C-alpha cells in the first residue's frame, strides 16, 4: 500500500504491511470446488433425464441454467470474499497505524501511535495452528479496534508495543 506523501511531515517508514491470513480463503475455495462437483453431477443427471433438444443435440436449456446458477454461486461465495480479502491491508509505520478495506466503497483507518493506549492480541486454538490472531488496539478515548486474522500477530504486537511504549510517557 502506498502511503500518501505529506510534505509537512517527516517521511514515514513502513515496518509491517500485511493482509489477513490466507486461511480466510479456504471456505470460498471449497465452495468453488464442491459447487463444481455438484454442478457437474446435476448437469450429467439433467443430460441423461432430459430429451434431446433440437434434433439430437444434448445441449439442453437446463444445462445452461445449471451453469448460470453455478457461476452466480461462485461469484457470490468465492469471488466476492477473495476481493474483500485482497482489498484489506494493515500497515504499521513508525508514526501511525493504517487499515484499509473495501471493494466498491473504500474505508481507511488511521491512528497516530500517540493515541494508542494498549495493544493486545488474542489466539484461539485454530489461530495457533495457523499462526494468526486478532490484534486489539485500545485508543486514548477507551475505544477498542480489532484486526482479525493477522498473520504472525505476536510479532506485529511486539513491534507495535515497542513503538507505542516510548510514545506513551507517564504524566508528572
Automatic annotation (TrEMBL):
Keywords: Membrane, Transmembrane, Transmembrane helix
Pfam family, one: bPH_2
Domain spans labelled YdbS-like PH: 85-158
Listed transmembrane segments: 25-46, 58-79
InterPro entries: YdbS-like_PH
Name assigned to this protein: PH domain-containing protein
Organism of derivation: Dietzia timorensis
